[in-house]
Amino acid sequence: MESFSSGVRGLVRVCASMSAITQFLSEPLRSFMDEHPNVQVQLEERLSPMVVKAVAENAADVGIFLPLVAMPPNLEQHGYHSDRLALITPKGHPLSLRKAVTLPDLLAHDLIGLHTGSAINILLNRAAQEARREVNIKIQVTSFDALCTMVSTGLGIALLPESMARRNARTVSLHICRLDEPWARRQFALCVRSRTTLPAAAQLLMDHLLAPLQAGSEKERQP
């Protein structure tokens, strides 16, 4: 009982979006599990709105997501990492000569998109609606690897996090363009129902995930 109450043992249920998992979680989870080998982490990928729902309904202890919808008032939210969206094109595409693109540039071409409800699709469709333009998504896939493969074969262009674009460009032929739009910069969040009521193991994981960001904030405040 003492080992469970101290957080040395236990199960932590984590829900996170695909972008959060692929960009931010592998190293922190590895280091956490090295420090706490008797804590089991159950990680599940969900769309950002479903991450919030899972935490609110106690189907997950910790959620990491993009705040695309209103947060339930009973959840505690903390700032997490940020990323930036970029455009990928096949080599030889008209946009492959560009270093930066804007929304009208994208909408003039066929796009490869992620599955319905993905955060990137939501942001793109919102921007297109505000501009009173249509998005022509030719093919939808369920992973960044598949997205890059489809683009590299010339089936269309696509948006994805810049870090994932650069990672995939090592193995498939892609051109990466900066997306010069205000919504290209995305701020992720971490949510729990309440830190004080979390199981001890979940409190430890939450603190572990947030520690590097809090340390960075304190360093910036120092004269």
Q: What integer value in Å does the Rg equal?
A: 19 Å
Tally of discrete structural domains: 2
From the 3D structure, determine the CATH topology of the largest domain: D-Maltodextrin-Binding Protein, domain 2
Order of helices and strands: HEHEHEEEHEHEHEHEEH
Work out the helicity level: 25-40%
Low-pLDDT sequence parts: 1-5
Return the structural class: alpha/beta
**Sheet with most strands:** 8 strands, mixed
Intertermini distance: 45 Å
What is the architecture of the largest domain at the second tier of CATH?
3-Layer(aba) Sandwich
CATH superfamily membership of the largest domain, which one?
Periplasmic binding protein-like II
CATH class of the largest domain: Alpha Beta
Mean pLDDT: 91
* Morphology: elongated
Number of helices: 8
Tell me the quaternary state.
single chain
β-strand amount: 25-35%
User: What is the β-strand count?
Assistant: 10
How would you sum up this structure, described in words?
By secondary structure, the protein is of the alpha/beta class. 39% of the residues lie in helices and 27% in strands. It is elongated. The strands form 2 sheets. Strands 1, 2, 3, 4, 5, 8, 9 and 10 form an 8-stranded mixed β-sheet that branches. It contains 8 helices and 10 strands. Residues 1-5 have low confidence and may be disordered. The chain folds into 2 domains: 2-81 and 187-221, Periplasmic binding protein-like II (D-Maltodextrin-Binding Protein, domain 2, 3-Layer(aba) Sandwich); 83-185, D-Maltodextrin-Binding Protein, domain 2.
